[in-house]
Fold this sequence. Notes:
The complex is a heterodimer of chains A (407) and B (623). Helices cover 49% and strands 14% of the residues of chain A. Chain A is of the alpha+beta class. A 6-stranded mixed beta sheet of chain A has the order 8-5-1-2-3-11, with no helix packed on it. In chain A, strands 4-10-9-6-7 form a 5-stranded mixed beta sheet. The longest helix of chain A is centred in the N-terminal third of the chain and has 37 residues, at 33-69. The radius of gyration of chain A is 33 Å and the shape is elongated. Chain B contains 18 helices and 2 strands. Chain B is globular, with a radius of gyration of 26 Å. Chain B starts with a helix and ends with a helix. The interface between A and B is large, with 135 and 142 residues.
Amino acid sequence: MAALTVLFTVFSSANAFAQEAAAAATAKPVDMGPVHQNALFYVLLFLLLCLFIAIVGKALKVYELTRETQGKPEGINWNTVNAVIFALFLVVGLYGVYWEYTVHGTMITHMHEAASEHGQRIDEMFKLTLIITTIVFILTHIVLFAFAYFYRASDKRKAYYYPHNNTIEKIWTIVPALVLTLLVLKGFLTWRSIFYKVEDPKNRAINIEVTSSQFLWEIRYPGTDAIVGKKNYKLITAINSLGIDFTDKNSLDDLTADEIVIPVNKPVRFILTSKDVIHSFYMPHFRVQLNTVPGMTSYFEFTPTITTEDMKTKLNNPKFNYILLCAKICGANHFNMQKNVRVVSEKEYQEWLTKQTPYLTNDLRKAFNLPVPVEAAAPAAKEAPADTAATAAKVALDVKNQLALKK
Amino acid sequence: MSTISLHDTHHDDHGHGHHHETFLTKYVFSQDHKMIAKQFLITGIIMAVIAMLLSILFRIQLAWPDKTFPLLETFLGKWAEGGRIKPDFFLALVTIHGTIMVFFVLTAGLSGTFSNLLIPLQIGARDMASPFLNMLSYWFFLTACLVMMGSFFTQTGPASAGWTVYPPLSAVPKAMPGSQIGMTLWLISMVLFVASSLMGGINYVSTILNMRTKGMDLWKMPLTIWALFLTAVLGILSFPVLVAGVVLLVFDRSFGTSFYLSDLVFGTQILPNEGGSPILWQHLFWFLGHPEVYIVIMPALGISSEIISVNARKPIFGYHAMVYSLMGITILSFIVWGHHMFVTGMNPLLGGVFMITTLIIAVPSAVKTFNYLATLWRGNIRFTPAMLFAIGLVSFFISGGLTGIFLGNASLDINLHDTYFVVAHFHLVMGSAAIFGMLAGVYHWFPKMFGRMMNPKLAYLHFWVTFICAYLVFFPLHFLGLDGVPRRYYAFTEFEFMNKWLTVNVFVTWSAIVAALAQVAFLFNFFYSIFRGKKAPQNPWDANTLEWTTPVEHLHGNWPGEIPTVYRWPYDYSKPGAEKDFIPQTVPFSQTMSSNLPHDFEGNEEAERIQKEWEATNKPVQE
């Protein structure tokens, strides 16, 4: 009863909405005539199908009843019918799996190779797991459906009373346990090699900060000092969207970028933060994913191995681009939160870097009481050194006071 | 003990029809476990239909993102203005589909229905330990459903932060429209639901532990009861943690606390919350959330164990192993929640630990699968509709379980997390498998519930279309995930690399529509058979368990006379030497001398002696 009321309210309010919508739609009237005809057509089609099924059902019943009255055995042995369909399902299904693996499997863009060092290890792990699971998948299904077919009910046979066999049970406990141990061990080593990195002083990773918010990624490069300066969400204003703390001298030379450009074969360390909700920093071609969590900084370090240009030729797709997307539900535009990623040679990277603009604008200099250069376009980085240390503390205080006042 | 026997006699009176039942006490505020089971089932079915329709709506959006469907506007109004579902509403559809399916259909609809129906009937009790609590459990559940559906009628729409409602997205009302009143209703609904499932769970556990009939020791219980028992234990231990999490989220949303919130800026507005962690919610949520998937699948596994054994006319292979593997799953399921959080940025050491515990849980699952296969081996399989669905369950459990080995591996999860691979995985292993378990149970115990039979031919049609379509829907989705397509995407049109999957999406959506239409066969069969189905015999499947010793016509108290005594385990099918191919649990060994095995007497020397004497005198006759 209660359920009926639910249904009833669903429909009645749907009507209410329809009326509301109809009122709103007076400006641009849609001719609903053909739409309704179309819907009616499909409903009739479905009813026709139901009628057909009902007729078949009745025909079967009549057939069976006549057999019964004539004293003949049951006309259709449904056990056999179902058993045969299981057997067919097995054969067609196996072909279907083969088709899926070969057709949809090859539609995967990055099937061929991962574009990062650790990605190749992940792919190895993946292939091993895929091989083992596919074997188990196919064998168990063959057994399942073959048993269904061969042991279908028959009056001539009796089932074999076989309640348990400890030896067999031990075997099929231990064998999966061993196989899983292998997978766990390999998985654990792979996992360690990804997240436990020892810093190599000769080959330091490039730090790049990524800040997510609804629905964009903001990229910050560290500038010449290779250190991304401090930031504080409380400093966020319309002109300082990341809340960069320019009293930290490491911030002064930080660069803003429209896209992520990274040099090939050099480790990069992404510093991941978020301003509003949780997003997920996901770059499938590099096998990189980590959530960006507000209030918590996380890091992902990896080494790209294939430049965008090389990948274009490898995939024979001149339009190919590496991509950064958001993998954690974050709101209405979750589906379109992207950033281009380019992997280039070291030389191109350095060239590109010189063209990027510093974060520190004149407006920000004023806001932080930093000296404004006479020539607006002068590179900020070189002026930074001497005066900052002394003024930094003072400025910081000033800024905080200002903020406190604003509150 | 004395209280229990008192209880029994009390119900005997009911059984003899001494008390007056009105329509209201019989059908609405019923305290009879069989009626409550039907209430749970029918509510569950209605919620399942609603959730299925929601999924068809978002599948339409995914398949034809550029097309307009003016009819959608007729039904959905402002949420599909111009005939196209809006992104916010898309997320609401996904969220509510997940919430309804996981909690209302596969927890309450499955476990609620069959615990209520089968526990008293299969252990030999007159009713639940606390019939009143049992009734409350249903009414809390129904209220939870109504509150959740009510959120569709709010100005800003239902909760839409995904069924896992991660804060800050769910906590900050301005993060998305669904996080306003819709989210509040979601949280209220969830508290009601947990209250319902705790009342149910406590009742199930106390009934099973205290009210088994004479002779029904734990190792003589059918596997359904074992599964429902362990499920209830799991629920009692894990659901309160969700309530704790939900209460903290309510505080954050409504009272300005900062349990989950810190360092938040929307646009340029800086929120005052400090010191909280969004990750805390994930720990609390998944501490329930992971046991929850076993709460969903274990009753289905128990049901299929029973059905496979009955219809293969064979004892379930490795009864003890089946119970121990259920226990193993129960215990392990508490220490694997972190595998949902490999890429949250939590300490990688935790990732390693959770990977190990997660992959260990595959072992008991594998044992169960192999035992099912061994039960089928050399059986005499009757393909009743229930049996078809049980076999379908085994197939889904294998297919979906194997992809779990990928996702449980932290290093592979980096690239697969939150992609369609995950969607495909859990829709097979806990979605389709659990639904098939539920349908198998409905077809099997329908005669017990309604005293009538369902039409088997319509059921065959229902099974085959659903089984095939479920694979057509979910198998291709794995490949989208492997290509890096994230889940909960409103459209695949914004990324060049996703365009190639649009045709696959169309195919998947059509398969889903066909699968949905096939459910009409079930719904018709179900509701028609309640009133017009063929009258059921007392034991239509020749099964051993106690529920088939009750009369077809329901009576309050289940058995008209004394509750039968149990002498043997429930799986004596096709025992050599027996007259028929089944020996009900109520048949004492003294009546089956020709089929007794030394193992049956569990070391009772007197019984063994009598058996030996009998064999000595009767052997020539047997030859």
